[in-house]
Design brief:
alpha/beta; Rossmann fold; N-(1-d-carboxylethyl)-l-norvaline Dehydrogenase, domain 2; six-stranded parallel β-sheet; three-stranded mixed β-sheet; 13 helices; globular
Length: 289
């Protein structure tokens, strides 16, 4: 049986490695990205000059873009060209409500849209061992399973339910990670503010249990002056909590973290994980030592 012709939109730090892995697995791939350098960095793929031409050439279209807004904009543009029996796979993160509405809109054209957000970062994308949270038509998911196994760890490719379910599980993943990291930053920051040496905290609290190991990792980041890059999922927290509230479920901790950090200093235009001022003071202290 011949492999389907794939279209891939978005060749960033996640999309680029995923697209390359698909080429190496033998898939015929047509790609599109606004950054010509990212297109040139990918070997073995055909290049589309427009999104329309990519959709027309492809049996399955995958998208991996960096924000909710871009993902929805691209999905709406693709919808205009979607045809019956065509499959669209959203690897980006959007809200469950958006995923459900888009799946319904594509179905009007006879196309099937799966929400398959991923977790594992650029390293996971390069190694092809991402976690994949799959939502949508179960028969279509089974049809796409060989493709998913090129991108993800087979034990972590999980069918979560109908359209929107993949994004729901991604929320669980993201908010759990963000809140946990924020707790460590806050408590270690408290100890340092009270004059406790970070090495003393690490020796006293670190250990073999997973949460103690994470405590040690974040303490070391603060000591090294790298804690500004600790991921608390700031940008996503508002959309996630808004969407959950629209479905009748409150996420008070996620909302509180967003509102607290939203008042903090933005490190730069590129930095999307702001931290309260005392965290900045703590990081600067250890960066200068």
């Amino acid at each position: 049986m011949s492999l389907p012709h794939l279209g891939f939109i978005g060749l960033g730090s996640m999309g680029g490695p995923m697209a390359q892995n698909l080429v190496q697995a033998g898939y015929t791939l047509t790609v599109f990205d606004l950054d010509s350098q990212k297109v040139k960095a990918l070997s073995g793929a055909q290049v589309a000059t427009t999104i329309e031409s990519l959709v027309k050439e492809s049996d399955i279209v995958l998208t991996s873009v960096p924000s909710f807004e871009i993902a929805v904009t691209v999905a709406e543009e693709l919808l205009a060209f979607a045809r019956a029996n065509q499959i669209f796979i959203e690897l980006s993160t959007i809200t469950p409500s958006q995923a459900i509405e888009l799946a319904k809109a594509y179905a009007v054209n006879g196309a099937v849209r799966l929400d398959v957000p991923v977790s594992g970062g650029a390293v996971g994308a390069q190694k092809g061992n991402l976690r994949m949270f799959v939502g949508g038509d179960k028969d279509t998911v089974a049809q796409c399973q060989p493709l998913f196994e090129v991108l993800g760890d087979p034990d972590r490719i999980v069918y979560c339910g109908e359209a929107g379910s993949g994004q729901m599980v991604k929320i669980v993943n993201q908010v759990t990670m963000g809140l946990s990291n924020a707790i460590y930053l806050e408590t270690i920051g408290y100890g340092a503010k009270m004059g406790i040496d970070i090495d003393a905290m690490t020796q006293a609290i670190g250990g073999n249990e997973p949460w103690r190991q994470q405590f040690e990792r974040i303490a070391q980041r603060i000591k090294d002056g790298n804690a500004t890059h600790t991921d608390i999922k700031f940008v996503q927290l508002q959309q996630f909590s808004d969407d959950a509230m629209a479905q009748g479920y409150m996420m008070p901790l996620a909302r509180a973290l967003f509102e607290f950090c939203d008042k903090g200093e933005r490190i730069s235009q590129e930095e999307i994980y702001p931290a309260p001022s005392f965290w900045h003071e703590l990081m600067k202290k250890y960066d200068s030592e």
